[in-house]
Design a protein that fits this description.
The structure is a single chain. The chain is an all-alpha fold. The chain has helices at about 1-15, 15-45, 50-80, 95-120, 130-140, 150-160, 165-190, 195-205, 210-215, 220-240, 250-265, 270-285, 290-310, 320-325, 325-340, 345-355, 370-375, 380-385, 385-400, 400-415, 445-460, 470-485, 495-510, 525-535, and strands spanning about 85, 550. The longest helix is centred in the N-terminal third of the chain and has 29 residues, at about 15-45. It is globular, with a radius of gyration of 25 Å.
């Protein structure tokens, strides 16, 4: 191994100075990410109250680990620098090629659709919670509000115009997801990805129990997953053509429309779309004009939809932004209230006194403000509190109890970045159906099928393979490592950043808005990370020289 490290160091020394410096900087950042964020912080949070000697020992161990991990990553960059995804041999017979593409399109669609239909049959008409019922009520009464994205509610309303039944709307969602999965697999087959890569992609599109659990709900997260799979198709085409695909006006138009959809179907979708277009402006020199046009037209389209169109349907605009963005500070305050109430500032103590009697706190789960948020008057009290005052007493509380505040932040955000997890992260994805005014309920004589499917899901979710499905930190880590390993390849590095950094921006930006471990916000990561990693190692048309194949 020492010989391999020496070869890697020698290879680094042969690179241009600018390339070498950038590689060393990125390798150092990833090393710190692995050691401090993924190893040290979870180790530290296991000790509360935090013992000073324990901290010193762990910190010393982390510093010692930096060197071997850094050298190991350098070796990984060296070994992967020449790797390229193998491609299937071109077919000279147009008929055979057409049949091959049709086969993969049908397989990509059919495998997902049939599997989804099994669950749709068992759990007809689908699952819903209070959010879904509220949106359905809005549609039936033609009274829309922006508490839920009106864009998403209008999509549901469009389907309801065909058949006004919740089950039909869920069916359309499952159908659309299956179709875009087939489109993605077809597109990858067209660009001659190897068979094993197509099968791997299909596996992550269909096999994750979280996918059919989420898609049985008419959540905005479900719609975001559908749009992100479709957008991944466009990213594949852009990458494989060195941007030429986007220069066609028709392709540019659908590209912008899907960007608008991603931005509006979730209020925080812009955390993905705006960084993507800015990075395209910076790193895709061939597409700077298209990126600028996309950014301007996307923002213009969003304004038109959010104002004239929303006004046309009479959408009300309740001011929920402040309440919806204080999940992390509220988690910190709630944790301190439970663990060390004497550390609360006088203003914070008075704030909590308004929320209600102590008996309400029996339902609070540490690090999960969601467990408390919807069953108390907390939102009302927050609305009545001046934002500046709220931030002031939160800062004072953090100053009084820094260790507990750090642990609260860790508990509420670790679902996004940690590669280890707990079963509680699956709790918000259980099949459920609430009492409702439309008599929607599960079919009674299918209880046995539901039990069998739920047992199967639980078996998968409690097996080692679930680390590839339910742990967002694993997906982000794999994307980060793949980006680092392909950075050196000519024409790849900064363009690879354009593929990955928007996902990181969305994940870490949304993390700061969390009220608890809500996996569904990040579900699309688990669906598209595999094709994106494969795409990073695939050809883009530049002269590669001699390449290794994977």
């Amino acid at each position: 191994m020492c010989r391999q490290i020496k070869l890697a160091r020698a290879w680094y020394a042969e690179q241009k100075k600018s390339t070498r410096v950038m590689l060393e900087l990125l390798t150092g950042l990833v090393t710190c990410y692995l050691i401090f964020l993924l190893w040290l912080i979870p180790q530290m949070m296991a000790a509360v109250p935090m013992d000073t000697k324990y901290w010193k020992v762990k910190l010393l161990a982390a510093l010692v680990m930096l060197i071997p991990v850094y050298l190991g990553l350098q070796w990984g960059v060296y070994r992967c620098s020449g790797m390229i995804l193998s491609e299937t041999s071109p077919c000279t017979d147009p008929k055979k090629e057409r049949r091959r593409l049709i086969f993969w399109a049908v397989l990509g669609f059919g495998a997902v659709f049939i599997w989804m239909m099994v669950y749709f049959y068992a759990y007809f008409p689908g699952s819903f919670d209070w959010d879904n019922l509220d949106q359905w009520w809005q549609i039936q009464n033609h009274q829309y509000d922006t508490w839920h994205p009106v864009f998403h509610t209008l999509i549901i309303a469009l389907f309801s115009k065909i058949v006004n039944h919740y089950g039909f709307v869920v069916f359309m969602q499952l159908l659309l997801y299956s179709l875009v999965c087939g489109y993605l697999v077809y597109t990858m087959a067209k660009w001659r990805f190897p068979v094993w890569a197509l099968v791997l992609t299909e596996f992550f599109l269909a096999a994750n129990p979280q996918t059919h659990r989420i898609l049985l709900f008419m959540w905005k997260d479900s719609a975001l997953t559908v749009f992100m799979v479709l957008f991944t198709v466009y990213l594949v085409n852009i990458w494989k053509t060195n941007g030429q695909w986007l220069k066609k006006k028709r392709n540019l138009a659908v590209f912008i429309l899907v960007l608008i959809s991603i931005s509006l179907v979730r209020h925080n979708g812009i955390l993905y779309t705006i960084p993507l277009l800015i990075l395209m402006l910076l790193f895709f020199r061939e597409l700077r004009r298209e990126a600028a046009v996309s950014l301007v037209l996307m923002l213009a389209g969003m304004w038109i939809i959010e104002h004239p169109i929303y006004d046309l349907v009479g959408a009300s605009r309740p001011d929920q932004t402040y309440v919806e963005t204080v999940g992390v500070p509220m988690t910190i305050l709630c944790n301190v209230h439970e663990m060390a109430p004497e550390s609360l500032s006088p203003e914070a103590a008075e704030f909590f006194a308004k929320i209600g009697p102590e008996k309400r706190w029996k339902i609070y789960e540490m690090g999960n403000y969601n467990s408390f948020k919807f069953v108390t008057n907390a939102n009302t009290v927050i609305k009545e509190t001046d934002p500046a005052e709220f931030l002031k007493f939160t800062a004072e509380t953090i100053k009084n109890a820094p260790g507990l505040s750090l642990q609260a932040f860790y508990e509420v955000t670790r679902m996004v970045w940690d590669i280890r997890g707990t079963e509680e992260w699956h709790a918000d994805l259980e099949y459920q159906i609430r009492e409702n005014d439309w008599n929607f309920s599960y079919v009674k004589n299918r209880e046995g099928v539901r039990t069998a499917l739920n047992d199967f899901d639980e078996w998968v979710l409690n097996s080692p393979v679930d680390y590839l499905f339910s742990y967002n930190g694993t997906h982000l880590l794999i994307l980060i490592l793949c980006t680092l390993f392909v950075f050196i390849r000519k024409g790849k590095g900064w363009k690879a950043m354009t593929l990955i950094l928007p996902i990181l921006a969305y994940s870490y930006g949304t993390m700061l808005l969390l009220c608890g471990p809500t996996y569904r916000f990040f579900h699309f990561d688990s669906v598209i990370f595999a094709p994106l990693c494969l795409l990073l190692f695939s050809r883009t048309g530049e002269k590669e020289g001699e390449q290794k194949t994977v």
